[in-house]
Amino acid sequence: MSGNVYDELKERGFVAQVSDEAAVRKMLEGKPITFYVGFDSTAASLHAGSLVPIMAMVHLRRAGHRAIAVVGSGTTMVGDPSGKTEMRQILDETTIRTQGQAILIQLARYLHFDGTNAIAVDNADWLLPLNYVAFLRDIGRHFSVNRMLAAEAYKLRLEKGLSFIEFNYQLLQAYDYLTLYRKHDCSLQMGGDDQWGNILAGVDLIRRVDGGAAEALTFPLLTTASGAKMGKTAQGAVWLDAESFSPYDFYQYWVNCDDRDVGRFLKIFTLLPLDEVRRLETLKDSGINEAKRILAFEATKITHGEKAAEEARAASAAAFGGGALRASGRKGGHGSPFISGGGEITASGNKDVMGDITVLPTTTIPRARLETGITPAELFTEVGLTPSRREAKRLIEQGGLYVNDERVDSVERLLTIKDLGADGGMLLKAGKKKFHRVVAG
């Protein structure tokens, strides 16, 4: 490695396209520059796919460069057509602002805004006060409609119908870049590869209006080895918000990744030195599971903190560490079972890990329902271990559902108070990798 952060980004797999590679490499090896990435406020949380730009920003910050995170409350009111076949839902300003604040809080965990080396801004501050006619005269005249329609972002939407409000999005994003160039001397914009046309429009606008030099860099739009979109599961998005997607589930997302993705994900989603990543990439057979556990721990630590990562790792080891998961019926010091090193929840271990058990996804149901009795198909579906009662019944017939490590042998069986362990919980298992804990309230 040359020591240039651009070369590290490239080796780690962050670079898809760059406006001028020699210029970008040179600017990143000299004195600190200011760069920015924008995040529209389309949801109250970012997701695992958002970690690609976030981690790239972290690497540049660690190399001494100045980060600007732009929360796009202004552009969210218009809606980015990039990569979309349908027009985005129009949100009201209050919702957009609230979601923007939640995103800022998340970004602060990674970028540590200090007002100097890392700052956060909202483009609504300069976009909403714009005089539209003056904006068209001063900015719009520099844009070629023919060139805009040739961009991939607009080509895709033209097939379904592109609204006039969406057609303005590229102008607004380019104006963001011009504003940050003028106010903060920002000379590099980064974003997903679907933003290539929008980012280049900003580079061109800075050149035309101010005669300035600015560059563009995009990240690949990641998919998993199976072809799924990064940060998506059958149950939905892998949110960075702990309330929407628990640290345990976040850990499990990474530890269950495809073997073919491990090396690539270690490079992008952890801060491990590349030499260590190369070592982990050489592991084969059962050794690949070690690499997955390291990936899961490092990724969870970055997003949720070391304590949450350790708890998630311990809970995962208890569930999948090589032994069965069962409730012993005997209490530990906190009225909970112990977890032994072999992965069993028993009373034979020597460490009280009540916190580790409660890291498992948990649902509280009324005690009265258990007194009456609940069928396994109903309960497993209710807590999300199976997508439907029909599927639950199919798994029961195939011997794939367990309660407290005992196979459910009949669709007619009722789960009752008697199935609760001494800790007041019932452990449900679907297949080999899906666990859930039920407690009576």
- Report on the biggest sheet: 6 strands, mixed
What quaternary form is this? single chain
CATH structural fold name of the largest domain: Rossmann fold
At the first level of CATH, what is the class of the largest domain?
Alpha Beta
Measure the end-to-end span: 57 Å
Strand order of the largest sheet: 1-6-5-2-3-4
CATH-wise, what's the superfamily of the largest domain? HUPs
Structural class: alpha/beta
Work out the helicity level.
Answer: 40-55%
Q: What general form does the structure show?
A: elongated
Write down how many β-strands occur, each being a DSSP E stretch of 2 or more residues: 15
Low-confidence stretches: 322-357
List the helices and strands and how they pair.
Blueprint: H1 5-12, E1 17-18, H2 21-29, E2 34-40, H3 51-62, E3 66-72, H4 73-76, H5 93-111, E4 118-122, H6 124-127, H7 132-138, H8 145-150, H9 152-158, H10 164-167, H11 169-184, E5 186-192, H12 196-210, E6 215-219, E7 232-233, E8 236-237, H13 247-255, H14 262-269, H15 274-281, H16 287-304, H17 306-320, E9 338-339, E10 345-346, H18 354-359, E11 362-365, H19 367-372, H20 376-382, H21 389-397, E12 401-403, E13 406-407, E14 425-430, E15 434-440
Parallel strand pairs: 2-3, 2-5, 3-4, 5-6, 11-15
Antiparallel strand pairs: 1-6, 7-8, 9-10, 12-13, 12-14, 14-15
Helix pairs in contact: 11-12, 13-16, 13-17, 14-15, 14-16, 16-17, 20-21
Main features:
441 residues, alpha/beta, Rossmann fold, Tyrosyl-Transfer RNA Synthetase, Structural Genomics Hypothetical 15.5 Kd Protein In mrcA-pckA Intergenic Region, Chain A, 3 domains, 6-stranded mixed sheet, 5-stranded mixed sheet, 21 helices, 45% helix, 14% strand, elongated
